[in-house]
Amino acid sequence: MGKMNLPNKLTVLRIVLVPVCWVIIMLPPTEAIEGCEMLQRIIGAVLFVLLSFTDFLDGMIARKYNFITDFGKFLDPLADKFLVIGTLVAIAFKDRGGAPVYTAVLFISIIVVVMRELAVTSLRLLVSKKSGEVIAAKWLGKIKTVSQMVCIIVVLLEPVLFGESRILSYITISFMTLMTILSGIDYFRSYWSFIDFTK
Predict the structure, then answer these.
(1) SS3 content of the chain, % helix, strand, coil (to 5)
(2) pTM, rounded to two decimals
(3) How buried is 66 (Cβ within 10 angstroms: 0-12 exposed, 13-18 middle, 19+ buried)?
(4) CA–CA separation, 32 vs 141, rounded Å?
(5) CA-CA distance, 26 to 43, in Å (whole number)?
(6) Which domains does the chain have, with CATH numbers?
(7) What tens-digit pLDDT sequence spans the chain (199 residues)?
């Protein structure tokens, strides 16, 4: 087995550290520490930003030094899914006692994200099986990922910065959901020919 290159090491590191981000967000606040819940949100957001930055960093290094591998093309999107979906679920768990409308919008958006990822992952497996091609992230998919990451940061930090206001959260959740749907449609439109309804 060949030695793992730096971009793939960063991707693996991201996967390993993702659960730490979830735990920080979901842990019940300690009453003995004043402002503990807000501190958890800040620490969770900072860790999420650092993990998201490794996504940008490993891609940049892979392209610059031609370290692009099929392993990396498969694992990198998977690491993004763990980071984004897991963190969204952690936030939903933490904010489950909030305003009913906000909670419903957040849960619906998570369902859309999960369904899209399951569908695109299934498509990736089908294309890989039929052609041996590993589908790399498309530009619309990258915009989707960025919109999801921005949304998570906003949802985590808006209560810290603006109290009970959820205006920015609603906007970013809506945009994230839209980009999630559009990017999913784009993948299926590009690889529709691999779907055989006769078998």
Answers:
(1) 80, 0, 20
(2) 0.85
(3) exposed
(4) 43
(5) 12
(6) 6-194 (1.20.120.1760)
(7) 457 888 888 889 999 999 999 999 998 887 767 788 899 999 999 999 999 998 888 888 888 888 877 777 778 878 888 999 999 999 999 988 778 899 999 999 999 999 998 998 888 778 777 776 666 567 888 899 899 999 999 999 999 999 888 999 999 999 999 999 999 998 888 877 777 655 5
